[in-house]
Structures are given as C-alpha cells and as structure tokens.
Amino acid sequence: MFIRHGRVIAEGWWNPYGPDYKHILFSASKTFTATAVGLAVSENRLKITDKVISFFPYSMPDSISDYMRELTVQNLLTMSVGQDPEPRAMGTSGDWITAFLKSPPIHKPGTVFKYNNMATFMLSAIVQQVTGQTIFDYLQPRIFKPLGIRGIDWDLNPQGINLGMIGLRLRTEDLAKFGQLLIQNGVWNGKQLLPKEWIKEATSFKIESNDPGNKRPKDLNDWAQGYCYQMWRGRNSSVRLDGMAGQFVMLFPDKDAFVVLTANARNTQNELDLVHNYLFPAIKSDKALPGSPGLNNELQKKQVALSLKPTTAAGLSKSEFESKISGKEFDLPQNNNNIQSVYFTFNEDGCSFALKRDDNISIVKTGLESWELSNTLSSSLLAPPRIVSKSVDANYKIPQPVIKVAASYSWTDKNTLELTARFIEESLGSETIVCKFSEVFGNVIVSIEQKAGRPMMGIPGPAPTPLRGTL
Predict the structure, then answer these.
(1) Mean pLDDT of the chain
(2) Which of 38, 81, 133, 467 would give a disulfide with 448, using CB separation of 3.0 to 4.6 Å?
(3) At 463, is the pLDDT very low, low, confident or very high (cuts 50, 70, 90)?
(4) Which has the minimum average pLDDT: 48-57, 118-127, 342-351, 453-462?
C-alpha cells in the first residue's frame, strides 16, 4: 500500500494473498511494543530513565553485574543493552526475565548497538508489570480499537507475557492505519491517541547501527542509517518498522507519505531499493496533479491481475493413479512427523490431501493448477499442529488459532503429484511437496518428500527424509 496525504495512491495483493488476511509481522511487532512504552510514560507509569532491575525484584538472579544494574528502559528501546550474545529464552519454559537479568552486558549500556530481541521482550514485561495488563490488552482501547483494528492476536510466552519482539499479526491495512497515525503525529479523527512528543522522540536518531552481513556502502545500506526506539532510520530521511522477510512500514514524514509492505521476501534490501529508487523519486509535487484516466485504468488492471503462479511445474491434468488411490488410506511407518497415514481424494473440485495423527485428521484442499483455500493448525503441510503456550502454567497449552492455507496440485508426470501450499497469514509461508506413486506386485506405494530447501523460506538446503507408505 502506497499512501500520501492520507489517501491510498495504489494497493495490491498477489492472489492468493488478500486484504482481509492477517500477516505475522516478525520484528515489525517491536514498534508496537515501544508504543506501549510511550503510552505508559505519558501516563506516568514509568520513565525511560528507570532502571530495568527496579521492576523485577522477584526475578533477580543470585548475582547481577554492575552494567546490568545500570541498564535503563531507554537502553532497551535503543538496542544498546551491551549483551553479546543476547540471552536465549525462546522455546524454553523457564523464567525469561531471570534469564535476561543474569546475562551480563559486556559493554556499558547505551554505548554499543547490538540487535537484541530479548530487550524488546523486557519492554513488554515492564509494561505488563506497571499496568497489570499484557501490552496487547493495554493497546486495545488506546490504539487498536480507535484505529478500527479488530480480530488480531499476539503470541505469549509461557509466563503469559506478550513476546513483544515478534508474534503480532495484523492486516496490511491495519499497518497502514498505524503508519498514518505516526505520520499524523499521533492524531486520529481529531483525538490525540499517542503523544506528539513521544513520536518525535521515538523516530529520531538515537544510536549508530550496523549490519555486518550487508557489504554495501553505508549510504546505500538501510540497516546502517541509525536506530531509534524500536525503529530504524533509513535513506531519504525515512523511518521504518522492520520485520523479517520484508514486513515494512516505510515512513517519509517530509513528504507526508509512507509505504506498507507485507511479504515473503528473501532479499529485503532489494525490496527497500524498489521504494527508494522508484516510488520516493516520484513524489515531486505537493499540489494535485492533472488526472490521467488512461494511466489509472492501466494501474487498476494491473492491480486486479496480480497473482502468484499456483504450481511450480505445469503438467498433466490427470493420472491413471487417481482412480486407484482416491479416498484410500496409505499407512506410513513410524516417522518424526508422527503421521500415521495419508489420503488423497480426487473430485471435480480438485484434490484433498489428508494426514492422520492419532484421532486427528488434517485436510488441505488443493486445486488443479489453481488455488483452493483451507484452514489448518500447522504452518507446514507435513508438520504437526503448532502449539503455543497461552497460560502461566507451561504444561497447559492450547492450539494456535487456525492457519489459512491456499494450495494447488499438478501431475508433473503420470507418477508424480506435486502439491504447492502458501500459508497466507504467515510471513515465511510457502512450500512444495512431491508425491511419487509406483505399483509393486499390485500394491500402490507412495513416497512423499519436501522439495530440497527449507520449506518456509525457500533457502537451498538438504531435503528432509521422505515418507513412504503403502496402500
């Protein structure tokens, strides 16, 4: 979405993605955590100069370093904690706060930038400590509801604290509303939701940043322009919400414009380059330009036609194996995915791919070289349902809300069925599996494997061990 002067200049979603679907934001979540801090500061619940340890007297480790005693809320906001490496708590059921506090900084806080996810988690924990609410609940009446943002969620850790650094899911337009709030200095429908002073403070340069893996010259490296409060400075005087795989809100305050991107991108610097090289230079006039119906029609046609190719390899429309396997069960030997059997059911609407685990059957509908939409509990075709802790009792777990998947199939030859899936509410959400059928002494055998690479990112790598089953 490209917005200027509060108006949508252009917007587009590549089918099967769409405007009504949430998207996991990864580290773009961090800016919402900082926003909760800013609101708490404005309500005199805390100060950015407060010492971090002052909020957690009951989580203090047996010993604590001098630098940790000096650490302030502002150091967390600017990623200048001084820890290297950052403490690791994700995926553990222990006390994340204690894990952070007992990891001593090796640099004086406030002097060295080092990206630190746990710093943002600590901001979430601090706001919860001073408000008695998770940051998600705290932001609901203050930001989300006034902006008309509904039906969203934010992951919790085992102690019931929002992750802060990641885990928020919003629609692209929800991000655009938040971007517009920032561009408007915190005013929405005539009401000051977020203090103007906080936005100015939060978006201004705070510390030199670095990006060791990016070999570009500094003036062309969007991760070397400085860091603010859980936001990045960028080229062309821009400020950026920034999440893995290309979740961006690029603010150009001087132009009263911004761009929102939700993506599954491998090279996110290229993504930013497109904005800096093409969209930003096109913002030339502060006055309305003459209309161009012809060009507007061309743009609208382009937007409507946006679509991702359903399958990676076009092939046959049908195979003789369909009649032999449709609706029948393939038993699988014991495997790491705990899949006991699979089914393939063909009809005029497409192919349903089903996995059985104990008493649970997961069904994904696929279209013949076209997208079909299903709900699942997993963000991978072969993985078990994703479970996250939603309680202070780490042993009590409930499934993640349903995950939407769009899938297609194609027979690449008479023996090979290829299934492609895009998990359309995930940022790293696409994969392809290959099912090879053969007949031995009258028995139909299937071999199922993911194409080489990490299925959620498309990065080259070894393929998992194939699953083999017999009808």
Answers:
(1) 90
(2) 467
(3) very low
(4) 453-462
Strands 403-413 and 360-368: parallel
Over residues 288-345, the pLDDT tens digits come to 888 889 999 999 999 999 999 886 666 788 999 999 999 999 999 988 888 999 999 9
> Identity (one letter) of the amino acid at 372?
E
Co-location of 169 and 67 in the same domain? yes
- Using DSSP, state whether 358 is helix, strand or coil: coil
Q: Which of 34, 429, 59, 90 is nearest to 265 (CA)?
A: 429
- Model confidence over 12-51: pLDDT tens digits? 999 999 999 999 999 999 999 999 999 999 999 999 999 9
Look at residues 228, 336, 221 and name the one whose alpha carbon lies nearest to residue 276: 221
The letter for the amino acid at 380 is: S
Give, for 437, the enclosing helix (H) or strand (E): strand 430-440
Tell me the backbone φ, ψ of residue 233, rounded to 5 degrees. -75, 150
Two structure tokens written together for 439: 């007949």
Same domain, 270 and 417: no
Domain assignment present for 358: yes
- Give pTM, 2 decimals: 0.90
Query: Rounded to an integer, what is the distance from CA 356 to the centroid of its chain?
Result: 28
Range of the domain at 271: 2-282
Is there a single domain that holds both residue 106 and residue 255? yes
Total number of domains constituting the chain: 2
For the stretch 355-382, what's the b/e string if a residue is b when 16 or more beta carbons lie within 10 angstroms of its beta carbon? bbeeeeebebbbbbbbbbebebbbbbbb
One domain, residues 62 and 169 = yes
Q: 226 and 355: one domain?
A: no
User: Which phi and psi (to 5°) does residue 156 adopt?
Assistant: -110, 155
Q: Write the pLDDT tens digit of every residue in 49-100.
A: 999 999 999 999 999 999 999 999 999 999 999 999 999 888 788 899 999 9
Least confident among 4-8, 247-251, 317-321, 379-383: 379-383
Given CA atoms 344, 347, 351, 356 in this order, what sign does their dihedral have?
A: negative
Of 30, 46, 232, 201, whose CA–CA distance to 119 is shortest? 30
E runs forming strands in 328-379: 328-331, 341-347, 350-357, 360-368, 372-376
Tell me which amino acid residue 152 is.
Answer: I
Question: Is residue 9 situated within a structural domain?
Answer: yes
Give the Cα separation of 222 and 218 in Å (integer): 8
